Amino acid sequence: MSKRKLFLVLVLSLLIAGCINYEENVELNKDGSGKMTMHYSIAQQLYSMMQMGQDSGEKKDEMPFKFKESEIRADLAAPGVTVDKIESKAEGDQQHFFVNVSFKKITDLNQTKSFSKMKFVWKEEDKKIVFQQILEGEKKNAESNPMGDQMASAMLGNAKFVFKIQLPGKALPAPDTNGAIQPDGKTVVWEYPLLEASKGQTMTAKFESGGFSLPVSLPVIAAIGGGLLISIVALFIIIKMARKM
To answer: Model pTM?
Structure first.
C-alpha cells in the first residue's frame, strides 16, 4: 500500500471514530483587523498515526491539519498576518491544538495556505459592513451516489466544524445575517457537520457602519452643556465682583 493510500485510510479511520473537530473563533474591530483562535482536536491513539503521514515527506499539503509548529507557521505565513501563539496539550483521550493569530485585515488571511479554501470577505455595502467566510465545496462527480452519501453521513456524523465571530457592532437579523446571533447581539455562530461543510457553505453577517452610538440623546447633551456654560459665566462674574470689593 502506498504512503498516500495509507494516509487516506488513517484519516478515514479517524473520521469514522468521530474524533476530529474544528473550532474557529474570530474577534473583529471596525477597521477589519482583529484576532483569531483556531482549535482542533483528534483522538490520542490516532495522533501518532497522523504524524506518520507528515513525517513521510510525501504530500504534506494533503494533511487536513498540521501538528508541527514550523508547518503551522509556514501555512499561516502572509503579509499582515502574525502567529502569536501555538499550544498543544492532551486532555483525556484527545490531543488539542490551539493556534492564536492576529491580522491587520481579515482578508489578509486569504493569502495563507490554511485559508485558501475558506476565504473571507470584508466590504462596505449600502451603509453596512458585510463579513463573509466562504467554504469551498468539493468537486462533485457527474454520477450521483446516494449509497455513498449515506455511508459518508454515517461515518462523519460526529465530526463538526464550528465558526464563531464577534463583530464590532450589533449583527443585523436575517436575511442580512444567516448564523445564530447570540444574546449579546454581536456574536454570531455557525455549526456544520463535517459532511455539510465539505459541500461548501457561505457564512454571512452584517452590521451598520458609521459613527459611534451615544449613551444619551443630543437634547440632554445640549442641556448639560448649556448649564455648564451658565455656571462658568456666573463664576466669572462673582470673581470679578469680589475683586472690586
So the answer is: 0.72
Residue from 26, 32, 37, 23 nearest 108 by CA: 32
Question: Does residue 213 have a pLDDT over 50?
Answer: no
Are the CB atoms for 89 and 70 separated by under 8 Å?
A: no
Distances (CA, A) of 99 to 42, 62, 89: 15, 19, 12
Contact 150, 228 (CB under 8 A): no
Q: At 194, is the pLDDT very low, low, confident or very high (cuts 50, 70, 90)?
A: confident
**Mean of all residue pLDDT scores within the chain:** 79
- Provide CB contacts within 8 A for 55, sequence distance 6+: none
Q: Of 63, 61, 66, which is closest to residue 83 (Cα–Cα)?
A: 66
Flag whether pLDDT at 44 surpasses 50: yes
Q: Do 107 and 120 form a contact (C-beta atoms < 8 A)?
A: yes
Distance CA 189, CA 204 (A): 10
Distance between CA 166 and CA 106 in Å, rounded? 13
- The CA distance from 99 to 146, in Å, is 37
